[in-house]
Amino acid sequence: MPAVKSELTTPGAGRGLLDVYSNRFLLKLLVRKEIKVRYRGSVLGLLWSYVKPLMQFMIYFVALGIFLNLQKATPNYAIYLFSGIVLVNFFTETLGNATRSIVDNRDLIRKIYLPRELFPVSTVWVSAAHFLPQVVILVGASLIVGWQPSIYQLLAAVAAFIIVAILGMGLGLLFGAVNVYFRDSENIVDMILMVVTWASPVLYLWTMARDALGSWFFLYQANPMTVAVEIFHWAFWYPTLGADQIGLVELPPNLIALWLPVSLLVSLAVLFAGQLVFRRLAVHFAQEL
Known about the structure:
It is a multi-pass membrane protein. Pfam families: ABC2_membrane. The protein is an all-alpha fold. It contains 15 helices and no strands. It has one domain. The chain is globular. Helix content is 73%, strand content 0%. Helix 5 (77-104) runs parallel beside helix 8, helix 8 runs antiparallel to helix 9 and helix 8 (151-181) runs parallel beside helix 14. The two termini are 41 Å apart. The protein has helices at residues 17-22, 24-38, 48-67, 70-73, 77-104, 106-111, 118-144, 151-181, 184-196, 206-213, 217-221, 224-237, 243-246, 255-281, 285-288.
């Protein structure tokens, strides 16, 4: 005889992000679907993952590096610029797509029950698939100019990527859930994405922000994106500098010992808050959609 459960469970009750791990197969299917839908009818397909960041890099490099002459004050400015762009692109793509993930999958959500967290989490994996080709370009360009990183710098770069992924997932869960009820959330996220490139030292040196902000600089440094970008610079840009150039560069103090764990804790706090809000609001997703 088939086993009979002795306990009744509330329909739709779940364990949040833990259910994503339990439904790894569904997550894989969603990631494949997102990639196929995005490039359906596209001639270049996944090659757009190379073309878009390169075009963005060229615009910033010409406008800031050449016209404003920032490349003169920053050795290997091209590596400095691109190492920040690839990480910010990963965050902006994750947050933007996660915010729309629930609304875009309304038909599926109304028909069947599955862990709602699967949709914003799948956008993180899709963004990571686009992030990888950009990192390949970054590594290749860095090797050309003499990149010789230490194992600690490589591990720090991985930690920076994890921090950004956690932060993007937490904000994606928050805005993805709120967007079901208030579509203005997409406009708020669009404004955040406009600011994020300038709110971290992607296009300029961190010392410029320090000198301009003074005693308020600690708030700037507490931004996980700021720390992650600075770590990427330390891992990819700093090892390309020659002995005569290193003395001209000032690294952020306590970057690894203090600010890396602080940014990780902040990102985890955002993820916890995002998951809490998401679980509270997910109960009525089907009705609202």
